[in-house]
């Protein structure tokens, strides 16, 4: 999960559950609690249909999924990484 602060667009967003957690590469909002969608997100590495209707899907990895798979290697069940992972030069939607 990526940890962030305030979004550059708004403090809070209305939820829309049109897109589903269909498989690897799905980008989804991470919430600390109800109505706290901000700038935290995670990238799915498997089908996670049990998340449908909970966190909002907002995109999909278009290229570089091999890098996501390498990042997954540094993860753990408790969400901590064994090495620091930084997103840089990611652009803006």
TrEMBL record:
Coiled-coil regions listed in the entry: none
Recite the UniProt keywords alphabetically: Isomerase, Rotamase
- Gene Ontology molecular function: any one: peptidyl-prolyl cis-trans isomerase activity
Record-listed E.C. numbers:
5.2.1.8
**What does UniProt give as the signal peptide span?**
none
Where are its TM segments located?
none
PROSITE patterns xref list = CSA_PPIASE_2
Per the record, its GO cellular-component terms are: cytoplasm
The catalysed reaction is: [protein]-peptidylproline (omega=180) = [protein]-peptidylproline (omega=0)
Please name the GO terms of the biological process aspect recorded for this protein, alphabetically.
protein folding
For this protein, the record's InterPro entries field holds: Cyclophilin-like_dom_sf, Cyclophilin-type_PPIase_dom
Looking at the record, the residues that make up the PPIase cyclophilin-type domain are: 1-92
Known function: PPIases accelerate the folding of proteins. It catalyzes the cis-trans isomerization of proline imidic peptide bonds in oligopeptides.
Family indicated by similarity: Belongs to the cyclophilin-type PPIase family.
Q: What is this protein called?
A: Peptidyl-prolyl cis-trans isomerase
């Amino acid at each position: 999960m990526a940890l962030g602060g305030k979004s550059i667009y708004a403090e809070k967003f209305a939820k829309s559950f049109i897109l589903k957690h269909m498989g690897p590469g799905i980008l989804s909002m991470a919430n600390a609690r109800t109505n706290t969608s901000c700038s935290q997100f995670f990238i799915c590495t498997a089908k996670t249909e049990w998340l449908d209707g909970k966190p909002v899907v907002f995109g999909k990895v278009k290229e570089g999924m091999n890098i996501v798979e390498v990042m997954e290697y540094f993860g753990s069940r408790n969400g901590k990484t064994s090495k620091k992972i930084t997103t840089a030069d990611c652009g803006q939607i």
